[in-house]
Amino acid sequence: MKKYFSVMGKFLLLFLVLMVPASCATKDYRTASRESAGIAPNPATNREAVLQVYGAPAWGWRGWFAIHTWITTKPADADSYTVYEVIGWRQRRGLPAMRIEKDLPDRYWFGERPRLLKDFRGEPAARLIKAVDLAARNYPWPDTYKVFPGPNSNTFTAWIARQVPELGLDLPITAIGSGYAAR
Questions:
Q1: Residue pLDDT, tens place only, 42-63
Q2: What residues does each domain of the chain span?
Q3: Which residues contact 107 (CB under 8 A, 6 or more apart)?
């Protein structure tokens, strides 16, 4: 048994020595793509209401096991989407961690392609948009961010899901910090 753990320890060390520097050096957040992934309907051609929830691998090595989540809405006939999310680095710039702004709904998250977690269109989306907006604006930690245990981006999305149960949103286990909202 002792030999097994010795071999596994060496394997783990070798993995970390080889993989961590390689993965951390391959992407530069300043040049990573922030363009649309082409998942969300184009507001110029799709006039119906849209509400979507996205998740993408977190920045850097955290993306091996964690995701960043956000919610986007577009009322019927709107020309753009509103993005609801929490971003920790905003605090270093003197901004609130919570962000509610017009933006691309399905943009790459620092080079990582987003995955659609929930998608509502038409009347179902229209019924949920105001409730999501109200829940986001009542988020109890708009100026606070902690990677672990939270509050963080996943805490924010989970908070909205708890306030608007009609979303039927169950975040994946990789949404680290989502359990903080239950406290």
A1: 999 999 999 999 999 998 887 7
A2: 50-182
A3: 34, 35, 36, 37, 114
